[in-house]
Specification:
Layout (H helix, E strand, L loop, with lengths): L15 E6 L2 E6 L2 E6 L2 E5 L4 E6 L3 E3 L1 H9 L3 E5 L6 E4 L8 H11 L1 H16 L9 H23 L18 H23 L16 H23 L6 H15 L2 H17 L11
Parallel strand pairs: 1-5, 2-6, 5-7
Antiparallel strand pairs: 2-3, 3-4, 7-8
Helix pairs in contact: 2-3, 3-8, 4-6, 5-6, 5-7, 6-7
Length: 287
């Protein structure tokens, strides 16, 4: 397969969200990628996908991984039913301007806090007092989120105690927590793919810090309470044979219905703009 000029790749908003696969083998074919499992062979529209979520029992060949990277399709390894995101491949862009800008804003205390304030104002329609430190902003954000979880759970008729699950013992968590983990993992996958497709670092978060996907968590939070949490609790309130699968199905439908793919990158641009006016880094270091 010839190398592709990454400038010619389609816009992220033009792509489908994600495809989850498990217990099969992904191979390169003459026309693209195929997935082989006990049901036969299925062509994969890799050029039109943002990310492939690879569940348990999924094997991918070297040639197939190369083709996915050339097509700017992120590979992510997840738990059964997309219950947890374990690892991911690298992004598909050769441009570094967005990464350099993100790093400058992240490394400067003033611009870092300005981006945090913009994120908070956009999420909660509330302006943070200028003297409030970062730790206090995080505390206020956490309180707002916990209250929102409780409210949405009550609206769905689900008993909610707290966010709690053991990644090493999935079945130990109650049904609302399992459904919520599945929904947020789907959202993480799409946002992660958007970030790396545009050349941002998933690790350089502003509200969340210190984790490999900190910036993914920052951006995902803009839609978690509107999309992932209601879907998770609605499914948890019903008697469903395969709740995690139902959550994935509803997430896909919701992402399409709300035009999520069109909104992620403009949203990132907007929140980073909040720190640009305070960016005093010498221009020569931005190149």
């Amino acid at each position: 397969m010839p190398l592709i000029n990454l400038h010619s790749l389609p816009q992220f908003s033009d792509r489908m969200s994600w495809l989850y696969l498990e217990y099969g083998r992904i191979e390169k074919s003459d026309n693209g990628l195929i997935f082989r499992d006990k049901t036969g062979e299925t062509p994969l529209p890799v050029a039109a996908l943002s990310t492939l979520l690879l569940g348990p029992g999924t094997v991918i060949t070297h040639r197939a991984a190369v083709a996915a990277a050339q097509m700017n399709c992120l590979l992510t390894w997840v738990g059964e039913g997309v219950i947890r995101l374990y690892a991911s491949a690298t992004g598909g862009t050769s441009q570094t301007q967005n990464l350099q800008r993100q790093a400058r804003l992240w490394a400067n205390a003033k611009t870092h806090l300005a981006v945090v304030r913009t994120m908070y104002r956009k999420r909660f329609n509330e302006t943070i007092p200028p003297e409030m430190p970062l730790e206090q902003i995080r505390g206020r954000e956490g309180a707002r989120v916990r209250a929102a979880y409780l409210r949405i759970a009550q609206e769905a008729g689900v008993k909610w105690v707290r966010r709690e699950y053991d990644p090493n013992n999935w079945k130990r968590a109650d049904l609302p927590n399992r459904c919520l983990s599945s929904a947020t993992a789907c959202l993480y996958g799409v946002v992660h793919a958007a970030l790396v497709s545009a050349g941002y670092s998933p690790a350089l978060g502003f509200i969340h810090t210190g984790a490999p996907l900190s910036f993914v968590y920052d951006i995902t939070d803009f839609w978690k309470l509107d999309l992932a949490v209601p879907i998770a609790f609605e499914v948890a309130a019903k008697v469903v044979k395969e709740p995690e699968r139902e959550v994935r199905k509803r997430c896909r439908e919701a992402f399409l219905r709300t035009n999520l793919m069109d909104r992620i990158l403009p949203n990132i641009e907007e929140v980073l703009n909040g720190g640009d006016e305070l960016d005093t880094m010498p221009p020569g270091l931005a190149r």
